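Newbie here. two chains, one complex. Structure please?
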Amino acid sequence: MHPPDGRQAALVAALGDALGTATAPDGLGEEVRAAVAGIREVFGAAACSVALVEPDGSALRFIAADGRGAAEIVGVVLPVGRGIAGWVAMSGESIRVADVAADGRFARDVAESTRFVPSTILAAPVPGPRGAVAGVVEVLEPAPDDTGSGRELAVLGLLAAQLGSVVRLRALYDALGTGLLRSLVDPDGDGDFDDALATLVDAEEATSLGDLARAFRDLAAAGPDAARLAERVLLEVADFARRGHRGPGRPRAPR
Amino acid sequence: MTDLPEWSRAFAGEGPGRSRGLPLPGERRDWAWGGATGAGVRVAVIDSGVDAAHPAVGRLAGSVAVEADPEAEEGYRVVDGAGEDLYGHGTACAGIIRSLAPDVELHSVRVLGRNLKGRSVAFHGGIRWAVEHGMDVVNMSLSSQNEDWFAAFHEVADEAYFAGTLLVCAASNTPGATFPSQFASVVSVAALPAYEADTLVYNTAPPVEFGARGLDVEVAWTAGGTIRASGNSFATPHVAGLAARILSKHPGLTPFQVKAVLHAVAGNSD
């Protein structure tokens, strides 16, 4: 077998990244779900949710929630230009809004679809790598802050920072896995490990496969049959990448 | 919970303690801004835009939007006349400033868009615009934690300082450094429990220097309405409004002189 060229190596490594994206939400989701349950408890709130910024920066995707309306809000994607969560993502500042109904840009339709429309929201940014905003944590209908100290925003900010560590750690593992895969398929490459990672960040293939992976992830969430379909398609893509565009290979045996 | 942010620790419990302020002539606050309305002072609100038609705002002297533009030499472009408030937040800040200094010349500098891409470049470009256009006070109820932009924010904050433009910045509620709020050349602000709009407390343990009213405040918002909100974002325009009044009464004070006056009139200054 010939060693793969640089493009093939990048493609296979990007595929590894895509696989990581496709499978990561389950692992990340478990950790974040536990965190939001704890945050809801701390604030005596009706619900707590976490949304992460999509890679192109245009939207927030709710990845975990606990409490009222939790099942309905997970998976919802909101444009980052909407409402309180969007403001927090854009500004990097925490906010407490006591009468959400008065906010003309509050995503009322989304709240109503969860059958829970809160009157008070606390929201704080989840810090991402290099100072970027990775997402937003929202606490819906917290118990009244009798002290009026304002410390609830500070506390939520700290918890959001911890949540950010979990998100960043997961991203780091994904990046390390990608780099390792690249090193394995291209051991004689003339770039070092850091360069390989930097290349992948800019690889067009990584972007398109990332989109593909998110589609697979959504399919997987739809049930076991859809998950098997997603796995099958991914394996076919992997086979295509391994053959490196050198024409058709042997047909794969049906699984 | 052992590691609260600086600002929270500073204003909790017994408070930040006392410090010695400049011996201003007569009653300090009266000397600082007694009778002043903000007339003759240009104030920029770098935010999500400002709704000029909101009753709490009344009018705007101008509005621009700063947008990321990779093709532009500086990485951004300035669009004149674009002032629509995309979130309501800029209108809230402008309303607070107007309530304290009703006659200021208000300018909206919108740097927050509908996409997170290019946020830092637009934010930085907005500060530069304010300096180049001779703003006296700039309200920034937003911050950046992007270390890649540390030097650029530092540079433009220094430019503002030397040009006589006072930058008033919200501190972040999250741990870690935020820019430009932690720089010595700006006035950084956090929220504290207070009912009075002119409450001011000096923090003897910076980088966050001042505490002002920012909890459970009724603020202007979208569609001509109001909401009750809390956050450092709403404390900041209270200090910006007071600074505008100081400059209205004492034109030509430099940013470090205005900061010294703010310190002298703080409730915990002797």
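Moderator note: The longest helix of chain A spans residues 6-43. The CA atoms of residues 191 and 221 of chain A lie 38 Å apart. Thread marked as resolved.
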